[in-house]
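Practice problem: predict the structure.
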Amino acid sequence: LGCAYNPALPDSPFYCGPGGKCPDGYDCYGGICSESMPACMDPSNPEFSGWPDDSDLEPNNHPDLAVTLPCGDDPMSDPTYSTRCPNRENYTNGFMNLLICPSQDRDMYKIFLLADETVTFQILYMYSDVLPRNIDAKVWRFDFLTQQYIEVAVGTSTRDNETITVTADQGTAGWYILEVHAGPNPVGLENVNFYTVSFTLNPTTTP
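Answer:
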């Protein structure tokens, strides 16, 4: 990256680059360049014993690094799509054993919606007043006209799972990005947690 460790910088000043790249003196943890391993990733820390490791999907803290959901790629651009994914109605899939750690971590997943298609996302997690803590979610859409990502839906329950449904209205077909992130940190606590993300493409019933 052309950068080196600087003691004047805080412990976790950067997001990781593609492939988990960080400046000298930092390592990539949960998409964040840090001098040291966060406690929520330390297997020797009894507070976080048994928490999952999703490093195989990291870094995914930016739309350009978002992980494509199963059968979430553009069906019009791959001639093998219909063989791999023959059904786009009431199709459900997702990922398990995911982690928001450290609290600055942002996990992003993407899916391509055709015109008038709908997707419902569910983020399932446990909540405690101490640990594990609150996580939230939002959905972005890439706008081809402005070449920017536009926020289209938000889920901000404080102690419960998140469910978000979005529809690609005519003219808004394209990539939709699900972002899972920590809720606002209360004084003295970090919102870190493990979770599962699932989605249903073109559900036949409304949750």
